[in-house]
Amino acid sequence: MRKLIYPFFLRRTKEQVAEDLPSKTEIVLYCEMGDEQRKVYDAFRNDFRDRIMKRIASDGLEKSGIYVLQGLMKLRQVCDSPGILKEDEIFSHESVKLEELTRVLNEITVEHKVLVFSQFIGMLKLIKTRLEVHGIKYAYLDGQSTDRKESVEMFQSDEECKVFLISLKAGGVGLNLTAADYVYLVDPWWNPAVEQQAIDRTHRIGQTRNIFAYRMICKTLLKKKSYSCRKTKETSQKKSFPTTAPSSRTSIKRILSTFSVRLKAEGF
What we know:
Layout: H1 2-5, H2 14-17, E1 24-31, H3 35-59, H4 65-80, H5 96-108, E2 114-118, H6 121-133, E3 137-141, H7 148-157, E4 161-167, H8 168-171, E5 182-185, H9 192-199, E6 211-218, H10 221-240, H11 248-258
Parallel strand pairs: 1-6, 2-4, 2-5, 3-4, 5-6
């Protein structure tokens, strides 16, 4: 693919266009689930594995894709907190991510502002409750919010407002939040573009401080595989869309080779 588009497409990254932007550091924050949370995770994993295998045996792999995705979604929710599951059974709210996030927010909000992204509204609500308990002022935005502009202005201008809780789909694009210099992605997924859009709400023109972005990942096979998938996709994108231009001579050769034109006769 890169060979085909190389002569026609030149990618320019933000770092190349806006050279005065401060640095951006991305860190993976691994979290170890406690015994209660691990029990719930293992129970759901085993249950869905059995159900999916039966479905594949009866309907075939191609028709079972939606059930695989449903299982993955449930396990991702358990990794955040079993308390956000919409099940008949009431689960413990034990959550290593919630505990770790509460700890770091109490520490860093003394001098910094923080963006917290999650795909799950239930997880945002649990974090919101923790912030209220600890007296940390916050702004909030999800797909149901009607005060989007007011929330952004409060976070940007109010020195007491230290945290912005944001639904990834509702606030991953179109916001300028340069008041923050820390970003936490509570439940990273396989798509690197979505994550980068979220991080870049604060890493943009007008930012004067270095940015630190944390991806919170539980130590499970699912999370390791999804993160590996994300890294593979990100690498593929970078390889496919080059950031440096080839020489004009090379470009012509590649264009002609695309159409299987013999180059020797033209003196190349």
